[in-house]
Every structure is written in C-alpha cells, then in structure tokens.
Amino acid sequence: MKRFSIIACLLILLFNCTKKSTTRNIESVVINDFFKDSTSIRAIKTLHKDTLFYAGSNGKVGMTLNGGKNWSQIIIKDSLNNTPHFRSISYNNKALFILSIGNPALLYKIPLQNNSNLQYELVYKEEHEKVFYDSMHFFDDALHGIAVGDPIEDCPSVIMTKDGGNTWKKTDCNSLPKFVEGEAFFAASNTNIEILGSTVWIGSGGKKSRILKSTDKGETWNIYDTPIVQGNGPQGIYSVDFFNPKEGIAIGGDFSKPDDNCKNKIITNDGGQTWQVIADNENPNYKSCVQYVPNSNGKEVFAVGKTGISFSKNGGENWKQVSDKPFYSIQFVDSNTAWLSGNNKISKMIIQ
Questions:
Q1: What is the arrangement of strands in the sheet containing 30-48, beginning at the earlier edge strand?
Q2: What does the DSSP assignment read for 122-144?
Q3: SS3 call for 148
Q4: pLDDT tens readout for residues 336-348
Q5: How far is the CA of 241 from the CAs of 84, 118, 292, in angstroms?
Q6: pLDDT value for 13
Q7: H or E stretch covering 318
Q8: Quick check: helix, strand or coil at residue 262?
Q9: Alpha carbon of residue 34 to chain centroid
Q10: How many Cβ atoms are within 10 Å of 90's Cβ, its own excluded?
C-alpha cells in the first residue's frame, strides 16, 4: 500500500508538471485599437489590463486607468518652451519617470498620488552634443533605477538612482565596460534593458552587439559578445527579455533592411555569458521588442516590429506570423492580454 501511494504521488506530480508546460497553437490574435494621436509611442508601462502609461514624441505623456475607455494626457515643455521627444519610461510604485532623447537629456518625475492632475518636475539634466538616452527601468526594490544612453567617446552613458528617482547620478566611466567606435544602444521600444532581482542585462548594437550585465544593481559590470547580426549602424540587439536568471532571448536585426531574418534572434542558457542563434534565415525578420508570455514556462514568446507580430511556442526555435499590423513595443499583463504601442497608436492584444 505504501509503495502504491508513492507511485500515485509521483504520477500526480508528473501530470501537473506536464500540464504546466503545455503550450498553445496560436494562429491569430485579436487587436483592439484604443488610442490614436499624432505621436510616436515607443515607451509604455503597464500595471494591469486596465492601467497603462505612455510617453511619446512631441512631449506627450498620458495614461488610462479604465482599460482604454478614457485617456488623460499632458504635454511637457522644457524651460525654452520646447517639447522633448520621449522613448523611455519607468514606474516605481509612487511616481512615473520619463526620459527624453537628444541634447539636452531631460528626466522628469511625475508623482501619481493624484492621478487626475499630472504634475511634472525635472530631476536630471545632461548637456552634451552626443547625449542620447535610450531606455530606463527600476529594480524591484523601487529605490534603484537605471537609464542607459549612447556612448560619449568609448564610454556608454549610464545614470542611476538609489533613492527612488529623486536624484540621479552618472556612472563613472572607469566602472563601465569600454565600447568600440560605432557601438551604441537602440531606443526602439524601451526594452534593451531587462531586470530580474539585482541583475540587469543591457543589449548594445551597431559596430558590435554585446550584452552588458551587472548582478549587483549596477555597481560592477561584465560584457559578453553575441553572434547576432552586427557591424553596421542599425544592426544588432533591439530588445532583450529573461524568463529566469539563466534563460533569456534577444531580438533585433537590421532596421534599414526590415525583411532580413539572418542572425537576428539569439538565446542564452547561462545568464547571458554565451548566446546561440536560433531560427536563422527564418521568420520573424527585424523586430524591435520581444517578450515572454507570463506563466508559459519560457516557451511562449511574442515579438513585434514594423513588420508585424510573431509568436513562438517553443522558446524561439520556430515562429508564426499572427498579425501584419506594425508596432514598436509589447507588454503582457497576463497570459492572454498585452498592451501594444506604435506610430500614433496604442492597442490591446487578446489571445483567444
């Protein structure tokens, strides 16, 4: 009897594990358009299916709190009455942070205690002819945050906060890996940074396309080569995501040749130290954002770009085009729902 009970328990465990790893055959998705405006929206931050924040071009920042039924928007202007262009956004449970591209770099904080009245304050400014920030995220503790930008000389630009975004400080070049001439970051979807726990990964592109990694919230860094397509200005990693501390995926390609699918998708099984090309010379082609589907055990993956939306049910080994609609970014809120952003639009994707 005891032996029978043990066998029964093992069978139950085996059944449960098998059930959890089951993936779906997704042939198509439903896309509902919620918001249209004359702004290019590459940066979105979702909290759940009803709440989304966005930052776009022309100084526009906005949100919905009821699933897209109503939208609030403000237009931010700098001290010279100019409207900055935003491609980076982050949130730390108390405030929203948005960061502009170009010179000067302007980082604004928007407290969210009063959601109906968005007020902004400038918390960081940097002036240099080469300044160009690309992406920004907070760690889970909501106190530490990081933003990355293109290099000045051979030093990537990294600014960090340790006090919840009230103050930001630029990391000394002596603490960072050196970039080669022509290596930079891409501000395509605010997703060339990925954070899990105290670990952060950042993907570069251009002359070389590599992964910068820190396991101590940006105090020390390592840099690792990747086999993704690289060598020319618009080639390399545009987006990176990790399912767990070991398994991750990066995607990109050549922005100037969006139909190319040569060496534009890579995966790692050792935390980003080594990478392998997958689905080489197979679709999808150039994509600007890649995300694992929640609760899919790292098997279900979506990638979006100006060439449409693609889905993989086996961790990126094979893909299927599920929509031809172009988007810059995707963020899941559950296993069946994701927000999308693109040129002049925000939409929601439903998996049925």
A1: 72-75, 60-64, 51-56, 30-48, 337-350, 329-334
A2: EEEEE--TT--EEEEEE-TTSS-
A3: strand
A4: 999 999 999 999 9
A5: 28, 31, 7
A6: 45
A7: none
A8: coil
A9: 21
A10: 24
Report the sign of the C-alpha dihedral through residues 210, 216, 217, 219, in that order. negative
Question: What is the set of domains in the chain, with CATH numbers?
Answer: 25-350 (2.130.10.10)
The token pair at 269 is 């099984």
Token pair for 258: 């969006």
Integer CA distances (angstroms), 317 to 166, 267, 277, 308, in order: 42, 9, 9, 18
Question: Distance (Å, rounded) from C-alpha 98 to C-alpha 187?
Answer: 13
Look at residue 134 in the predicted model and tell me its pLDDT. Answer: 97
Token pair recorded at residue 186: 């891409």
What amino acid is encoded at 118 in this protein?
L
The one-character DSSP state at 248 is E
Rounded distance, CA 249 to CA 206, Å?
18
pTM above 0.90, yes or no: yes
> Which residues have CB under 8 Å from 282's CB, separation 6+?
261, 318, 319
Low-confidence stretches of the chain (pLDDT beneath 50): 1-20
> Which residues, other chains included, contact 175 with Cβ-Cβ below 8 Å and sequence gap of 6+?
219, 220, 221
Instruction: List the end-to-end C-alpha distance of the chain, in Å, as a whole number.
Output: 44
Please say whether the beta carbons of 300 and 306 come within 8 A.
no
What's the rounded Cα separation, in Å, for the pair 150 and 179? 10
Name which of 40, 32, 90 is nearest 60 in CA terms: 40
